[in-house]
Specification:
Layout lengths: L6 H15 L8 E2 L2 E5 L15 H8 L15 E2 L4 E5 L4 H13 L3 E2 L4 E10 L9 E9 L3 E3 L12 E3 L8 E3 L2 H11 L8 H7 L5 H4 L4 E8 L7 H13 L5 E5 L2 H11 L5 E10 L8 H5 L10 H21 L1 H4 L10
Parallel strand pairs: 1-5, 2-4, 2-6, 6-13, 7-11, 11-12
Antiparallel strand pairs: 3-4, 7-10, 7-13, 8-9
Helix pairs in contact: 3-8, 4-10
Length: about 350
């Protein structure tokens, strides 16, 4: 005796089978593998003078449609490989608010995402030079403390004291294995340079300031205040050492705030900070701090175009490796291979 399913049950079974076999719908969230964030772009995303995002856009997103995110000032772009990117805005508040809006937006699945926060920065001439590219080992918030005028304290003593209550958000150590991978993949990259940058370096007596650009690691100091001059530079190094971090090598304005958002929302150690140096954090011995902050025409550092190109060239090596080895990276940073 034969048995036939009712027509409505057969139709339901067929519908379920087709759904299981069909690809994800357009309403499914984008599975993000690597997210690249920059702080500003000078003009358009392509075809004009490049800011922090343009080279990333041209490498990964030129065929991508913009995705509008409520709470973020600029659209997100994603390619078919799971690489996404956006311009967050400058400063701790703007950039971290953008990151939170994007992470919490249901259009994206960020549960396994690696983050590269990239942009231009300053560097102390004792430890870096124009067009250097640096991966952060530590992030330090420059602002969370007490400060006073030098003449109101003990002569020659530090003019900064940490404020209690910020211990968990003023210092972040980035995943050492992730930094190790970054240096193994990019540490020997050939970086672009310019004649104007080479000439500018010669104004500084420090050996580090005069050398050719390279890929390096160290502490990235986050501060909304654009601190400047040898005194402020020394204070930044003092704070880095006070907190137990590596040498201060980069001054920037965003990533400690972004780190706090990523830690609160995702809780994993997949954040990288990648910065290129476009200026020194102080003048040379023949100029005052104010003269260096407001240079005469033709007296700027040079090398900006080369530096933003270097950042994307270095960072893309990391992005491409993660994407091409996703089965090994999805569940966490793989062990570093022996060299």
């Amino acid at each position: 005796m034969s048995f036939r399913k009712p027509a409505h049950l057969a139709a339901a079974a067929l519908s379920l089978a087709l759904a299981a076999a069909s690809p994800a719908s357009a309403d499914d969230p984008v599975k993000v593998k690597v997210f690249i964030g920059s702080m500003f772009e000078i003009g358009q995303n392509t075809g004009d003078r490049a800011g922090e995002f343009q080279h990333w856009y041209e490498r990964y997103f030129s065929q991508s449609k913009p995705i509008t995110v409520k709470g973020a000032p600029n659209p997100v772009y994603c390619n078919d490989d799971g690489v996404c990117g956006s311009v967050f805005g400058m400063g701790k508040v703007a950039s971290s608010a953008s990151v939170q809006a994007i992470i919490l937006n249901p259009q994206f699945d960020m549960s396994d995402a690696y983050f590269i926060v990239s942009g231009v920065a300053g560097t102390p001439p004792e430890r870096g030079t124009i067009a250097d590219v640096s991966w952060a080992t530590w992030l330090v918030d420059y602002d969370l403390g007490h400060r006073w005028a030098p003449e109101e304290g003990e002569p020659g003593a530090p003019t900064f004291m940490p404020r209690k209550g910020y211990e968990k958000v003023r210092l972040f150590q980035l995943n050492p294995d992730l930094v190790g991978w970054a240096m193994q993949l990019t540490g020997k990259a050939n970086l672009k340079d310019s004649e104007s940058a080479r000439s500018y370096r010669m104004r500084y007596p420090q050996e580090s300031a005069r050398r050719a650009p390279a890929v390096k690691t160290g502490t990235h100091m986050t501060g909304d205040t654009f601190f400047h001059g040898p005194g402020m530079s020394a204070q930044a190094q003092y704070i880095a050492k006070l907190y137990g971090a590596d040498d201060y090598i980069i001054t920037e304005m965003e990533v400690a705030g972004i780190a706090q958002v990523v830690q609160r929302t995702l809780g994993h150690q997949r954040l990288m900070s990648l910065r290129g140096a476009v200026n020194f954090d102080q003048g040379n011995p023949n100029e005052t701090t104010l003269q260096h902050l407001d240079p005469a025409p033709g007296q700027t550092a040079g090398g900006f175009a080369e530096t933003v190109d270097n950042i994307a060239a270095v960072g893309s090596r990391m992005v491409d490796h993660i994407i091409s080895h996703w089965s090994e990276w999805k569940n966490g940073v793989p062990p570093l291979p022996r060299q």
